[in-house]
Design brief:
With about 140 residues, the protein is mainly alpha-helical. The chain has seven helices and no strands. It has one domain (about 10-120).
């Protein structure tokens, strides 16, 4: 009997990209607070994507598929850059910079058609305060 894992890193990446596409679509109509929450949530999605890419690459490297793992790393090279840009904007609490950083993801998700939004705003509600509390050490 063979066990098939249906919760793969690739599937999670696609789900996260879909969530980011929906967030970008909603961006023009959100408040400043919700924009900060979206940025913090997108930061966590990008972190999970980076972890998934590394996990996939490690397993391919282990099997000797070095070219395949390097191609995957190259194809997703935009993720760490976007992560860094969004994180810097969140740290400075500069909303204009944050919007530009979030929109910089658009070329990588523009192929995703969002006809109906299926992600509830409660996914990212309060994420900025959680991120900020985890980021700043308490005395």
């Amino acid at each position: 009997m063979r066990i098939i894992n249906t919760d793969t890193a690739g599937k999670k990446r696609q789900q996260h990209l879909r969530t980011m596409a929906e967030m970008v679509k909603r961006l023009p109509e959100v408040s400043v607070e919700e924009g900060l929450d979206m940025g913090a949530y997108m930061l966590s999605l990008l972190s999970e994507i980076m972890e998934g890419i590394e996990k996939s690459c490690e397993s391919w490297d282990f099997r000797g598929y070095y070219m395949k793992s390097e191609q995957l790393r190259q194809r997703w090279l935009w993720v760490p850059r976007s992560h860094q840009n969004i994180e810097e904007a969140l740290e400075s609490k500069n909303v204009d910079e944050l919007i530009l950083a979030i929109l910089s993801v658009y070329p990588h998700i523009q192929h995703i058609t969002v006809k109906k939004t299926t992600r509830d705003p409660s996914l990212w509600s309060g994420k900025f305060n959680e991120w900020w509390a985890a980021k700043t050490p308490t005395s």
